[in-house]
Amino acid sequence: MNWAIIFDVDGVLLELTRDEEELFFEPFASRMDAAKLSRDWNSYKIRNDQEIVCEILALHGFPVSEYAVITEEYLCLLQRALEQDLRSVPIGGAALLLERLAPMARLGIATANLHRAAELRLRQVGMWQPVSGLAFGAEGGGHKSDILARAIAATGLHRSNIIFIGDNVSDVVAGLKNQVHFIGFSTSVSRLSQLREAGAQHLCATHAETEKVMRQLLNAAI
User: Fold this and answer.
1) Domain positions in the chain
2) pTM
3) CATH of domain 4-15+89-220
């Protein structure tokens, strides 16, 4: 296929629920007062789960070697919870969007979540398979622009043949820095305004709109 469409996960394919969020901080509880750790992802130096774990450990005087233990504990907790009563929540229309776009382009993800965490959550709602062949997460570190760059390199395609869709200002920055087509998505009017101010040219509030814009971009290249 001559095109690739890369999705952010939280806010685009899945909602990030409070229960899922709290699981991320649970492994820190035996080492520090986890209740005092910021739940504002933008408050950390780099919005990337690997970087956040390392920042928290450094701030509280723990060696970087604890990273592997913390992340493994988190992933085990997440898997167990998803097998029991935790439910990931799909964004409305996301599964249908993937189904309809799959014949038209290679699909993938560029997420600040750990790769395995994204897989576990997407797999539960039946959305992992369409994006699994081009899936990049927090591993390797860096900003979203770095994660997206790794995904772009893996496609082997020219940047003009890649569409990235995200819901955060950091996603807009990543799209612009990597010189790909960017679509800003959110069901929040205020968030869409933020994305517009950050430089997003295409904005969508539903995935029916997302599909329409993507088809326009794909058809314009024919």
Assistant:
1) 4-15+89-220, 18-83
2) 0.95
3) 3.40.50.1000
